[in-house]
Amino acid sequence: MTAATHSTLFPQVPETADAVLDGLDPEQREVALALTGPVCVLAGAGTGKTRAITHRIAYGVRSGRLQPASVLAVTFTNRAAGEMRGRLRQLGAGGVQARTFHSAALRQLQFFWPKAVGGDLPRLLERKIQLVADAAARCRIRLDRNELRDVTGEIEWAKVTQTVPADYPAVVAKSHRDAPRDPAEISQIYAMYEQLKRDRSVIDFEDVLLLTVGILQDRHDIADQIRSQYQHFVVDEYQDVSPLQQRLLDLWLGDRDNLCVVGDASQTIYSFTGATPDHLLNFRTRHPGATVVKLVRDYRSTPQVVHLANGLLSQARGRAAEHRLELVSQRDPGPDPVYTEYADEPTEAEGTARRIRDLIAAGVPAGEIAVLYRINAQSEVYEQALADAGVPYQLRGAERFFERQEVREAGVALRGAARAGGNDSLLDDAEDLPAQVRAVLSTKGWTPQPPAGSGAVRDRWESLAALVRLAEDFARARSGATLSDLVAELDERAAAQHAPTVQGVTLASLHSAKGLEWDAVFLVGLTEGMMPITYAKTDEQIEEERRLLYVGVTRARLHLTLSWALSRSPGGRASRRPSRFLKGLRPGSGSLGTVASGASGSFERGAAAGRRKPRGPVLCRVCGTTLTEAGAMKLMRCEDCPSDMDEALYERLRDWRADQARELGQPAYCVFTDKTLMAIAERVPGSGGELSSISGVGARKLDRFGADVLAICAGEDRGAGLDED
Description:
Elements (H helix, E strand, L loop, with lengths): L16 H4 L5 H8 L5 E5 L5 H14 L8 E5 L2 H13 L6 E4 H16 L6 E2 L4 H10 L6 H16 L7 H8 L7 H18 L1 E2 L1 H14 L1 H10 L2 E4 L7 H11 L5 E5 L14 H4 L1 H4 L4 E5 L1 E2 L4 H12 L4 H4 L5 E2 L8 E7 H17 L7 E5 L5 H10 L4 E4 L8 H16 L12 H9 L14 H22 L5 H14 L8 E5 L8 E6 L15 H15 L2 E12 L26 H4 L4 E4 L12 E2 L6 E2 L2 H6 L11 H18 L9 H10 L4 H5 L6 H15 L12
Parallel strand pairs: 1-7, 1-8, 2-3, 2-6, 4-5, 6-7, 9-10, 11-16, 11-17, 12-14, 12-15, 13-14, 15-16
Antiparallel strand pairs: 18-19
């Protein structure tokens, strides 16, 4: 048996059609022989789906049952399309069209535009962001660079889901989508964007699909011409098709059913772009006589990795989970997954770097190792740890941390503040180095609380927050350090981290790791609030986060390590919890029926994990639920639990805070955040001890503002003396 995911780089072209089938397992062979009618291939991770469908096409061509020019195979990335073309050539089936949806549609649009519309096809926008900026300006709506990227993404999502500008607000509300701006504003920008495109005679990539659909719907002669050329269709990664792509596919097909689709609902992780597994899950309903083949023999991962992947999906809920595939490893046994708990994030990164260095010393190539995380902002601490360990690395799907635009801008601002020294009024009330950094970065978009939702604004905030944490750690390690010292440290770090990108350890987000695999995978930062991400609220969003972790697990061939940190920084409160997705899977994590009984792997504590005793979970004082979000823990209750807040007291505190902020020349949140004021108004402290027990009221703020706050809580004039404990 030939492994599905490993082959020589230059295999010999099979001599006969039957030789094309050599080395296929029974299910792959069944796929290859099903050359007519609708075919649905449900292919789990590592089961050789690309192998199966390329051998199917090649067998059809080599046996004379398919003409190369009559086959159109479509997928979602140029890399995947190129890989498919390469495999087909190696199998002696050159001439088959293997393209992305956009590439195939653009080719047809360019050819038929003069006949269908007349004249030349409008110019294709390579990047739409400038036109979106012009549209926003016309609407008198100001967008910063990150908001501009997010609104552009929203317009793309609206178009692939076939949502017109007027319907956008209602569709967003119905789908519970987190819009980066007021949906009414985005609708207005979207409408103006479409108008500007018409005025300037340009089209975007989504228009390529929309216009092709329009021509095929309106011009039956052109549709018939395309259908006469393409008789057989193959769609890879079918779980990722958008409604617009499905509409185009239906028009290509017409009333025929020679369609082979391949996908796995458990790997649907791009719903934010409009992808939906519904078309895959409904395939047998739309095509009752379809041949359905399940590929479950996993040639990529060891039984230990596969066991964890199966256990992860066994806890899943929802429609996609009902169609999950139980993988069966075809590899020899390997090491158990390793679960490691660390005291804090830097220790987690250092421990990960040490393990990677040990693997490389044991003979695992650096290029066969990956560190996967939920968001790109997590990369910096791993870049530093690997650089310190002398391990080469490369970033996939993101700029290097110190090359990100927001990090460069922050560096310029910090350098300017360091040069100005005491002459910078921004730093007048900043009592220490971290406070100075927070004050400077607040002008660049940093806030004490992260912005809602995902996207570029959130990514920018995460990068700036990483700099704030770096300043806090630097100040803790070097007593008396100045802003100039920190700037010098940042320069040194930036210079030291220009590691070679060839044969380096891959640092990547889980989303950008889809379709890739490594001998060793480290899944890091697996805490509540990061996995699942804090802004995943609905059941379906939570399930997509579970599928994202499943994709991460199934990237590993042999070595798999899963880790988390109890605290953000050294010496911090150990309030974090491991991801709920690991419950019943990692040793000692409780029972989830049959899952826990099969839990395998070793549980370890990082080198510094035992230095302080972890605190127990924070419970809601109303309903008793374990709290995981910072805001809820500050209030000591769930956000949606009843509040006993004294509204009048809260308003008095807000008025007082506004006065203080004006006097200090700082944003109001630098005095106390809204959540801290709410917690004070709910608990109405009567002494300094009671006030200091509220999260957000540290010793410095107690000294500075405690007397005023306690006086207000007591109904007295501001400025009354601080009560003694």
